[in-house]
Amino acid sequence: MKKLITAGLTVFALSLPSWASAQDLTIYSGRGEALVGQVIKQFEQETGLKVDVRYGGTSELATLLLEEGDKSPADVFWAQDGGALGAVNAVFVELPAAVNEGVLPVFRNADNKWVSTSGRTRTLVYSKDRVKPEDLPASIKDLANEKYKGRVGFAPTNGSFQAFLTAFRVAEGDDAVREWLKGLVANDAKKYRNNGTQLEAIANGEIDFGLVNNYYLGRYLANDSKFPVAQTGFGKGDVGNLVNVAGIGVVSASDNKEGAQRFIEYLLSPAAQQYITTQGNEYPVISGVIQNPTLPPIAEVLENAPAVDINKLTDLEGTLALLREAGLL
C-alpha cells in the first residue's frame, strides 16, 4: 500500500488483491461523483471490473429501485443516508453475516440487508462575520423563531436533510415536524438544492445559517483557509445533531452479485476507509483506521447525538409527504 502526503495528512493509496470478471457492475449512486468517483475508479483499476454508474439524488434513486423491482439493472445501491437504505430494504438481498460484523456497532445495520460505508453528522454552518456567539441556537427547532427570520437556508430535496426529518419524526412525531416545517416557511427560510450551495450562500451574504452534513465545510476550507464559514452543533441530545451513515446494499435483481459483494468488501477495506476519512472528511465505520484530525472525535459526536436508532429511519415516503404538504417539494 503506497503512502502519500497530502495537505499535511497521510493518505493511503487503495491497493487490494486483483479480481477479474467479464461482467460489468452497475451502481446506482446517491453519492455525488465528486465525492466517490475516485474510489470507484480505483476499484476498477484494482479489480479489472468495468463499472457503470448512475448518479442521482438518493431519494430519487430509491424510488426508482422500488418502481423497477425485479427488472432493475442495478447491482448495488450506494445511498447517502440510512433512511433511504431502510426505505428500500425489500429490494436488497441479505448480506453474509461477516460483512456487518466488522462494522462498529453504532453504524451497524441490524437486519444485515445493507452495510454502512461511512459515518457523518448533521451540523449547523454559520457566517463567521455576521453571527455572534449569542446568536447560535441551542436547538435546531429554534431556527423557526422570529430571531432567525430570513437568515436560514436548508435543502428540502437533499437526502440527508430528509433522513434528518425522518429521525425528527421518530423522536418527536409527525405533528412536531409539521409545525417546524411550517415555521421555517413562515420565517422566510430559503431553499437550496444541496449542502454546498448553502455554504456558498453564507459566504456570499445571502443567509447566515445552513443545515448540512459535517464533511462539506472541510472541503471548502481545504481550498480556501479563509472561507468565512464555521460550523457547530446544537445542545446535547438535540435531534439536529443526528449521526447518520452512507451505506450500500446488493439489489436482489442483480445479475452480478459476486461483483457487488466484492465492491462492498472493497469499500470496507482499511485502505478504502482510510481514503474516505482522509479525503472525504467522514468517519470510518471499521476500527483500526486513523481518523481525520480535522474532525471531532467520534466519542464526542456520539455523546451529543440524539437517541435515534438509524435502523428506524425507514419511512422515507412519510417524510416526503410532509415536505409536499409544506409546499417544499
Automatic annotation (TrEMBL):
Q: Where does Fe cation bind?
A: 215-216
Q: Which keywords does the record carry?
A: Iron, Metal-binding, Periplasm, Signal
Keyword Signal attached: yes
Provide a Gene Ontology MF annotation, just one. Answer: metal ion binding
Q: What GO terms fall under cellular component here?
A: outer membrane-bounded periplasmic space
- Signal peptide from the UniProt entry: 1-22
Keyword check for Iron = yes
At the top level of its lineage, which domain of life is listed?
Bacteria
What family does the database annotate? Answer: Belongs to the bacterial solute-binding protein 1 family.
- What is this protein identified as? Iron(III) transport system substrate-binding protein
Lineage of the organism: Bacteria, Pseudomonadati, Pseudomonadota, Alphaproteobacteria, Hyphomicrobiales
